[in-house]
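User: I've been trying to design a sequence by hand for this structure and keep getting stuck. Would you show me what you'd pick, starting by listing the structure so we're on the same page?

Assistant: Good idea, let's start from the same input. This is the structure you sent:
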């Protein structure tokens, strides 16, 4: 059986970065570390996503999430990881 890793991509373009993804980046890194998910989740940054007016932007498994903040990313990750228990195990 092929193991598929969850992928989280955070926009690090200047608009998203200055509007909150600078903080969200650190929150996600800490979340992955706390839950020992660094080896099970691909987490990477990307330059401008051309959606500046809807940012900060984060993609999780190819789904775009808009207006992400450090306070709403944790519940989103909790929800999505519960939908993919193989990532947690």
């Amino acid at each position: 059986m092929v193991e598929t890793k969850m992928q989280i991509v955070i926009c690090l373009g200047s608009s998203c970065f200055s509007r909150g993804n600078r903080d969200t980046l650190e929150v996600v890194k800490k979340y992955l570390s706390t839950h020992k998910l660094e080896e099970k989740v691909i987490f990477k940054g990307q330059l401008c996503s051309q959606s500046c007016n809807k940012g900060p932007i984060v993609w999780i498994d190819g789904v775009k999430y808009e207006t992400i903040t450090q306070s709403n990313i944790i519940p989103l990750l909790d929800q999505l990881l519960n939908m993919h228990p193989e990532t947690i195990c």
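That's my pick for every position. To get oriented when you compare it with your attempt: The radius of gyration is 13 Å. The beta strands are 6-11, 41-46, 58-60, 63-65.
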